[in-house]
Amino acid sequence: MPRTARGAHILITGAAGGMGRMYAARAIAERAASVTLWDRDSAALAQTARELGAVARGRTQVRSYVVDVGDLGAIAKAAHQVRRAAGTPDVLVNNAGIVRGNRYFWETDSGDDTRATMRVNTLAPMYIAREFLPGMIASRRPARIVNIASAAGTLANPRMAVYAASKAAVIGWSDSLRIELEQAGHDHVRVTTVTPSYVSTGMFAGARGPLLAPVLAPVVVVDRVWKGMIAGRPLVQLPWSVGLSRVLRAVLPVRVFDRVIGDGFGVYSSMERFTGRG
Fold this sequence. Notes:
Distance between the termini: 35 Å
CATH architecture: 3-Layer(aba) Sandwich
CATH superfamily: NAD(P)-binding Rossmann-like Domain
Number of helices: 8
Strand content: 5-15%
Order of helices and strands: EHEHEHEHEHEHEHH
Number of strands: 7
């Protein structure tokens, strides 16, 4: 893939605001051929599409679709519309995600939170990628899939058990998909798995960054992810301490890790004051 997204067709989920909107703005700045925005918030999506369209000034075609990616049937319908309007995207950014509450698992909402979190965070990226992968493979053009997971998927975190599970599943699927594409000889389609710590978008308002893992600025995350995507890097970890924690989790006895990293570094208490949005 070239060093920029110039001429590419890009689809971004959760694109009405936050980092989704920032990815779209980056694509427009690099003269992408088209940017397709998916989000469930119709009002915010319409406003974002208007504003980004004004910035694009016709150089990049901006399209938007109201899609609740937690509705797996809606994904297939919207994907069909995208293929008719712009063909198969060259870049898919699975950015949409939710997190619910800061309660213990047994205090959550009788399974409703669990179903919603797993559908949006785990099943949706799989279903969306499945919709577009055949076209990406057949086109032989350089293509990218970016799956936004989380550092929470790499280690346990109290008060966000289902969220951590949903992101752990994304990491396992995403990296397996990368290897499958390589084994099958489809090297032109590359998968980047992203595992950031807390990002200051409002989604994790009130959460405290553990020691050595300060809350990240969205602009920093977007820049690192974008460059990693263009380069086709398998993994983007933010900050560096996320990688360190994975190593320590593998080599330390469980109870030692719990005391030294989980409790000592503040990982296990980072969600106690969480008030963010779902």
